[in-house]
Backbone:
């Protein structure tokens, strides 16, 4: 009887050992699979504008945009803006806009890390503050300090005031003609009045008509 019990115990122990080995194997394989799948899904570029952003410009059909996890900056993914072979004159921009209400009377800064490849003309961060649907009251697109050619990651910023009457703030990155740019670590924040502005502020409108007889 004791021998029979011992044999049964050995069989149960053998089954339990097999179950434990199988369970450990599953526990090891599942995490590995869970890591691999997202990595494969993230390896390819997306070809649509990131959520909250839009592809616009004078000729948006000549450009493509999306997320590029392979062109990351310190582990953060980037968005790209690239010209198609058909691109000629005109520009594309990856941008977004929002209400200026909570920023009226403040100074704001847009900053980002940008790299470029074969930019034939120029590229740059840009920001615009509007009062009404079509009136820009302050604006900067880095045209006086453009990104050109091929360059690695560099920090850029645009600083503007938001005057009374402002209604909309829009910002993004633009690419004029051909090439490609990547943008990462985008930040939008209010800053102190000791931080110099980079753009131009539209002069206030005159109070009355002037020089109607063309003497001046």
Residues:
């Amino acid at each position: 009887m004791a021998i029979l019990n011992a044999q049964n115990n050995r069989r149960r122990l053998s089954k339990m050992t097999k179950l434990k080995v199988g369970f450990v194997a599953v526990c090891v394989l599942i995490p590995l699979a869970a890591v691999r799948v997202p990595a494969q899904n993230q390896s390819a570029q997306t070809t649509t504008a990131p959520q909250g952003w839009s592809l616009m410009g004078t000729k948006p059909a000549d450009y493509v945009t999306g997320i590029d996890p392979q062109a990351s900056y310190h582990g953060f993914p980037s968005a790209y803006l690239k010209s198609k072979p058909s691109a000629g004159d005109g520009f594309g921009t990856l941008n977004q806009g929002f209400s200026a209400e909570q920023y009226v009377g403040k100074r704001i800064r847009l900053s980002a890390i940008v790299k470029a490849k074969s930019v034939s003309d120029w590229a740059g961060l840009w920001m615009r503050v509007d009062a009404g649907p079509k009136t820009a009251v302050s604006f900067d697109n880095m045209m006086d300090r453009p990104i050109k050619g091929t360059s690695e990651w560099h920090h850029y910023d645009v600083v503007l005031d938001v005057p009374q009457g402002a209604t909309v703030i829009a910002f993004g990155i633009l690419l004029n003609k051909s090439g490609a740019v990547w943008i990462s670590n985008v930040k939008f924040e209010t800053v102190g009045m000791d931080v110099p502005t980079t753009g131009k502020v539209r002069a206030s409108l005159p109070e009355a008509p002037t020089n109607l007889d063309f003497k001046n």
